[in-house]
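Hi P.,

Sorry for the delay on this. The queue was packed all week, but I finally got your sequence through. Input first:
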Amino acid sequence: MKYEPVHYHDYLGLDKLLNSQKRRSEEFGKPAHEEWLFISVHQVYEVWFFQILKEIQSLVPLFNQPVIPERDMGTIDHRINRILTICKNLTSPLDILETMTPHEFLDFRDYLYPASGFQSAQFRMIEVLLGLKMENRVKLTESPFYDHLKEPLRSELIDLMKGSTLFDGLENWLSRTPFLKTAKFDFNAEYKTALINVYKEDLEVIKTNPRLTDADKERSSKNIQSFMDQIDIVFNEEKYNELKAQGQFRFGFKAFQAALFISLYRNEPILQVPFSILNSLMDIDEALTTWRYRHALMAHRMLGRKIGTGGSSGTDYLKDTAEKHKIYTDLFNMSSYLIPRSKLPPCTI
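Then the structure:
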């Protein structure tokens, strides 16, 4: 053997792992069988959070390279898809946890105060590294969310908030997209014209549609005209930046243009991996939103309208985070500006 032998049991540290489950109910002389399940499920979550963190932490420096080599693009795509696969499976442990009834949960719930999933430092680190900003967080209390963490995890998270995130790296990378303006193609000007022409055609269809009443025509025409005004904003850097300052966009102007360009011309061989990356990031956002909402439903099922052990408003807080803790909303909103591929301006890359 080339290396010193190692036993499976020792390599995985199973002595420590399988002896880390300590029931609080047992400490107080009223051991509750269901508490084993509660502990195991949450430990499983922390193990997967550990892996997600390792993947994101490996991606940030790759994105922060001044020029990303093509070989690294495949690595980025692969690891983002690994994160996605893990995130899609975060709801599965909830199915197992829900085999415990609300009454069985009450057998040990009072022993858990003030412990709460809100105190999961690893998940807060995942949110930070994915790009969730302080101002976009749902407040649990008046104090900052990291005040609920214990040291040294609190300090580690604060330091993490000062550094670069996956969102930052993605935005910088998108901003360097070289194909938006060439000697033969100006994406901003040509696509804006194509997009407006599509809506002008829709306006004409509405005006000449004999099945619509005058009131229907007026209402539909106003809606389309309103969207055409919005198009002018999205393709005007100065107006776009004004809306970004108001929080209506997160990407910078160049990054948004590049993401839209990649989505539209995704069949071009050189854009297929970039599109896969953008698509997977939306899927991650969607998977985490689904998990948060499933968590909210489970909390409602287990607690009804009770306050959570961490002092939150329970179900309401979890539902709010599901709605408001999305990170890559600009990618979702891009669908508003897509047109049929048959009407795309020709682009040779």
